[in-house]
Structures are given as C-alpha cells and as structure tokens.
Amino acid sequence: MTDEEELYLAEYSGRLVNELEKKVKELENEIAARRLAEDALRKSEEKFRNLVETTSGFVWVDKDGVYTYASPRLFDILGYMPVDALGKTPFDLMPPEEAERVAGIFTVILPGTGA
Questions:
Q1: Are 59 and 71 in contact (CB under 8 A)?
Q2: 60 with 85, same domain?
Q3: I need a labelling partner for 43 at 20 to 30 A (CA). Which of 9, 12, 34, 80 fits?
Q4: How many domains does the chain have?
Q5: Structure confidence by residue, pLDDT tens digits, 27-62
Q6: Distance between CA atoms of 56 and 47, rounded to whole angstroms?
Q7: Which domain holds residue 2?
C-alpha cells in the first residue's frame, strides 16, 4: 500500500470513527431522555393510583360509558369487586328499574347519548 493510500484510509477511518462517536452520543442522549420520561410517567401513575385507591369515594375511569378502571372502594360502596365492573356500564350495576329511570334522566341531560 502506498503512503497516499495509507493516508486516505487513516483519514477515512478517522471520519467514520467520528461519525460513529456522534451517533453513539445521540443514542445515549435519546436513551437518557426516554428513561427520564418513563420515570416521570411511572411517578405520575403512582401518584394517580395512590390518590384513587385511598380516596373515600368510588373512583373510575370510563371510556364511552364503559368502566376501564374501578377503585378498590367499589366493593365497600356497591359490593362489587373492581374487576367485576370492568367492561360494564353504570347501568349494568343497577337494578333494571333503576337503570331505566336513570337512563331517562341522562337522555334529558345529555341528548343523543342513547342512555
């Protein structure tokens, strides 16, 4: 190999090493940012869970009127295990006559809900 070829290879490999070092640093920064975001999310979820599970009321998160979360207090208040409420609506947990009565109220308050 000529001196010129060796010089070219040395310069080229030096540029490659620099590029790789930049990419490694970028990935390290992305990983650090993701870890911070995941840690913040975990702390936020823990705060929410502690709030929900220690409140004296029955707290739920519902999507389209269907329970996707029910606090442990559900058992104390209504006698249902929280897992038993998942996938149901509030009307499913009421006696049929009461569900019909409350649905009528909801229809007046929130027209178009189909309650």
A1: yes
A2: yes
A3: 80
A4: 2
A5: 999 999 999 999 999 999 999 888 877 887 777 777
A6: 16
A7: 1-54
